[in-house]
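Methods — Computational structure assignment.
A single polypeptide chain was analysed. Its primary sequence is given first, followed by the predicted tertiary structure written as structure tokens.
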Amino acid sequence: MSSSDPNRLVVFDTTLRDGEQSPGAALDVNEKVEIAHALEELGVDVIEAGFPISSPGDFRAVQRISQEIRNCVICGLTRANPKDIDVAAEALRGAARPRIHTGLGVSEVHVRHKLRTTPEEALERGVAAVKHAKTYVEDVQYYTEDAGRAEPEYLYRVLEAVITAGATVVNIPDTTGYTTPDEFGALLRGVMENVPNIHRATVSVHCHNDLGMATANTLAGVANGARQAEVTINGLGERAGNTSLEEVVMALKTRHDLLGLETGINTRHIYPVSRLVSQLTGMPVQPNKAIVGANAFAHSSGIHQDGVLKERTTYEIINPRDVGVPDSEIVLSARSGRAGLRHRLAELGYTLDEGQFEKVYDRFLEVADKKKTVDTRDLETIVADEVQIFFEETYHLEQVQVSCGDHSIPTATVRIRDAEGQVFCDADHGAGPVDAVYRAINRVIGEPNELIEFSIQAVTEGIDAVGRVTIRIQADEPVEENGVERNVFSGRGSDTDIVVASAKAYMFALNRLIAARREAQAS
């Protein structure tokens, strides 16, 4: 999608491609499709759905997203070679508006050491790649990798050549997060002034956050002529991450007086999409994260509280409702009934079928009995646990019981039901209650693995808060999942009892591992 309106910024979301490259953030095909639908509803212009040649799983994800998403440009990444482009074109064949994204490095370190070629040969390969992609699609985007460290004159030559060859979008990335806003803004200004045919293409910026300046650099690029911003939800991405969609969009909206640009984003969907991506990737959002963090609209200072109560804008430059942050004062109890719960879920943007709703309702009653009132963040966690699961559960945890204390041996008993309905009960002891539970579960399931990461967060405030546990386990032997060998699987679980939440998270990860192993054996 090229923006013909100089006051309109195209939002290019690469959560499903670059964002998924965050260590431990791998998504399966169904999870990618779920996020793609949420991005479409959010209003992004372009979804970079994956790197089709990288794996059969990525190919299937791009293929399904191309078939199901009709209101966004669907983009597939390639290297600058014919086979990559052929495979991407095949994956994108069902898309209403397909785009192939190809390119090569332009900095000396990339050309000489990564590509091991000469600048002239790299330029020729890039031009050939664009021409080949144009035989499949009209919309071709070219990335000049590591442009932030390139010689400007060479960058200008490459851009002019690929636009002449047919590129409709040219991507100027700060691949390593090296530049400062002044430098990156000057680089974009130089591109706009020194590439004779630059008006024939949309100029895009893609910034990384290695020095914490991704959003600032993106805005500097936009201020100097870029009309597409490449972003991810929650700033997911390799190393320190990419530019955050929510930060760029809300900066443009809040400082419209300064930049004067519009996007097509429905900002009220930002918070729900942030939660969805966090839950499906198993990557928690840090509390002090701008726009979507738990503390983004919290005020603990007495001076701040007094000011906000008198006039919100004294300390809040963004209305929380503008980004979909729910009103935490709205709470439900066990007496709210199905109608009250259904109404609140609809307000939060959840569309559940009858079976899904009943599962959520049953879990809601369990939580309400334990903590009396259930607020929005509790509901989000319940829906994530009960509905947002995209694999078949082999084992179901029915009961956990623990005994522990400073003068006793932590001991756990678990009762687990398998897919055939057979119930197993076993017990073990460990260094602590969670260790004892995991050992007891291992005695029943017997799937060799190592716990490599464990984190716990309170979903809400108070002594009766729901706790959310996120873990990662490493299988003894790699498992081929969606065409890629993986040995790390994430799990999540929540409960007012953190030991039970830990058990649910472990069962989630084990079931995911077993499902991947079963699928690999079937294929």
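Note: Residues 299-305 have pLDDT under 50 and may be disordered.
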